[in-house]
Design a protein that fits this description.
Elements lengths: L4 E7 L3 E7 L5 E8 L11 E2 L1 H18 L7 E8 L5 E4 L9 E2 L10 H4 L5 H8 L8 H10 L2 H8 L3 E4 L1 H10 L4 E3 H4 L5 E2 L4 E2 L1 H6 L9 E3 L2 E6 L8 E7 H8 L8 E5 L3 E8 L10 E4 L10 E7 L3 H9 L9 H6 L9 E3 L17 E3 L7 H27 L6 E4 L6 H11 L3 E4 L4 H13 L15 E5 L5 H25 L19
Parallel strand pairs: 1-5, 5-14, 9-12, 15-21, 21-22
Antiparallel strand pairs: 1-2, 2-3, 4-7, 6-8, 10-11, 13-14, 15-16, 16-18, 17-18, 19-20, 22-23
Helix pairs in contact: 1-6, 9-14, 10-12, 12-13
This protein binds adenosine-5'-diphosphate and SN-glycerol-3-phosphate (G3P).
Protein name: ATP:glycerol 3-phosphotransferase
Keywords: ATP-binding, Glycerol metabolism, Kinase, Nucleotide-binding, Transferase
GO molecular function: glycerol kinase activity
């Protein structure tokens, strides 16, 4: 039988990867490159979409070259991406009109009411599954258009296009196809969760011309063929990175979950064809679906700052030179010495949804040294996971038996032990911790029949490591009480500062929005 492979492009918050996988789900090549992070003002985070495309178009041939694979041996390409990050470009020239506004960016936080025409928040949540926050793309897009009348005029004239990173990359890879998938569209605050279509009422609230929006497609299914990077490869899947890792972890069935620790951390529970509404601060989102299949959904606990806290220690504080050093540094002390960090760099996402919360470091004394800070960093990531696991348990009505983990941070054994300690459930890491890329490859392969169905993929999943709690219930609960106090203080501090006002009061009434 002749050789064949599937490719995945994983466009993440800090870097882009291109990987090749064989039929057994084995990674045969990986090419990766970081891109610049821009922080022009407090709370603002931007990317250069043109830089990301330049990197991507070079990585694809590099991944093939490295493994001596011919383009003709690649049967399908899956594109997966950081979600919500908002790009606007000129339809005629393909040039971005400005920097991409990254999902973590909080510039819209104090104008959310205004940016959604003061529509009722519970109506929005009912229709989209999302809380009104700085996180989704829709308000970011309106912020851009409202800030520049010339831009709005061009948008109204049909000259501009909007996309998340999947859309931007496919536009460039194909030379002009303007598409997205249901998982990415479900992060915009512009799509109706039930119909999987752009919603005219939501577009009216956010003053978004429909001509800017990509066509929404199922996640799994060929959308076109590459013309640039490496020409001639069918693009078999588009899928948001967190939904991709749900596939990569083979969490195909309702009740199966995973948590990915990257720039942020994201716990998703597959809820099957049922739309489950959270009463505990979680998002309802789309899981990846194939053409002709009914939509499937997930509950998501999104945490904005995880690896980004480690990056901050590295780049802004100079505490460490490489990310893995955070573990070595934390290992120089036995505990946090009384220091607690709440990394509310983008406010707090799930389950709190507190845009005003600001990052805090508590418990400083002359005793505190670098090692204590490093330990508090890892503990913050773990406690944020506990907060979303507790919310998930409440919504699902039953506790999780174990937590399947993946992502860049899971290389950190002390972090994984700490997560097991604070959750008191086993934490399990598979052999292939690049579940996002693997999931995109699975989706792309399924689209072209490279794998006959999902069930054959389960045999690729192998447990590599498992951690179990090593702390007493008393110690755990004492530390959790300190964390909860710290979260409350970070919220109170941010509110007190009035740093990011929440905008006009929200109405309590549930109902349809006023259309303008
Ligand atoms: N050994 C480690 N310990 C702690 N954090 C790590 C470690 N290795 C990587 N990271 C962090 O993980 C993140 C990168 O993970 P990745 O899954 O590639 O994220 P993304 O897809 O969001 O770019 C970075 O924020 C980095 O600081
Ligand atoms: O780049 P990641 O892996 O942290 O993922 C970002 C998320 O998609 C944001 O919603």
């Amino acid at each position: 039988m002749s050789r064949s492979f599937v490719a995945a492009i994983d466009q993440g918050t800090t870097s882009t990867r291109c990987l090749l996988f064989d039929r057994d789900g084995r990674m045969v090549s990986v090419a990766q490159r970081p891109h610049q992070q821009h922080y022009p003002r407090p709370g603002w985070v931007e990317h250069d979409a043109a830089e990301i495309w330049r990197i991507t178009r070079e990585l694809l041939p590099q991944a093939l070259d490295d493994a001596a694979v011919d383009p003709g041996e690649v049967v399908s390409l899956g594109v997966t991406n950081q979600r919500e990050t908002t790009v606007v470009w000129d339809r005629a020239t393909g040039e971005p009109v400005g920097p991409a506004i990254v999902w973590q960016d909080v510039r819209t936080a104090d104008r959310l009411g205004e940016l959604t025409d003061h529509v009722d928040e519970s109506w929005l949540a009912e229709r989209t599954g999302l809380p009104l926050s700085s996180y989704p793309s829709g308000p970011k897009l309106r912020w851009l258009l409202d800030g520049d009348p010339a831009l709005r005029e061009r948008a109204q004239a049909g000259e501009l296009l909007f996309g998340t990173m999947d859309t931007w990359l496919v536009w460039n890879l194909t030379g002009g196809l303007h598409v997205t998938d249901v998982t990415n569209a479900s992060r915009t605050l512009l799509m109706d969760l039930r119909t999987l279509a752009w919603d005219p009422e939501l577009l009216a609230c956010m003053h978004v011309p429909v001509s800017m929006l990509p066509e929404i497609r199922p996640s799994i299914g060929v959308v076109g063929t590459t013309r640039h990077g490496v020409p001639g490869i069918p693009i078999g899947a588009l899928v948001g990175d967190q939904q991709a890792s749900l596939l990569g972890q083979t969490a195909f069935d309702a009740g199966e979950a995973k948590c990915t620790f990257g720039t942020g951390s994201f716990l998703l529970l597959n809820t099957g064809t049922e739309i489950v509404r959270s009463t505990s601060g979680l998002i309802t989102t789309l899981a990846a679906n194939a053409e002709g299949e009914p939509a499937t959904y997930a509950l998501e606990g999104s945490v904005a700052a995880a690896g980004s806290l480690v990056e901050w220690c590295r780049t802004s504080l100079g505490l460490i030179r490489t990310a893995p050093e955070i573990e070595t540094l934390a290992g120089t002390v036995a505990d946090n010495g009384g220091c607690v960090i709440v990394p509310a760099f983008s406010g707090l996402y799930a389950p709190h949804w507190e845009p005003d919360a600001q990052g805090t470091v508590l418990g400083l004394t002359s005793y505190i040294e670098k090692g204590h800070l490093a330990r508090a960093v890892l503990e913050a990531v773990a406690w944020q996971t506990r907060d979303v696991v507790d919310a998930m348990t409440q919504d699902a009505g039953s506790a999780m038996a174990f937590l399947a983990v993946d992502g860049g941070m899971t290389a950190n054994n002390l972090l994984m032990q700490t997560v097991a300690d604070v959750l008191d459930v086993p934490v399990i890491r598979p052999m292939m911790a690049e579940s996002v890329s693997l999931g995109a490859a699975y989706a792309a392969g399924l689209a072209v029949g490279y794998w006959s169905d999902r069930s054959v993929l389960r045999s690729h999943w192998h447990r590599a490591a498992e951690w179990r709690s090593e702390v007493t219930a008393d110690d755990r609960e004492r530390a959790y009480a300190a964390w909860r106090d710290a979260v409350a203080l970070s919220i109170a501090w941010g509110r007190g500062q009035g740093a990011r006002r929440q905008g006009p009061p929200r109405t309590a009434e549930v109902g349809a929005p006023a259309i303008h």
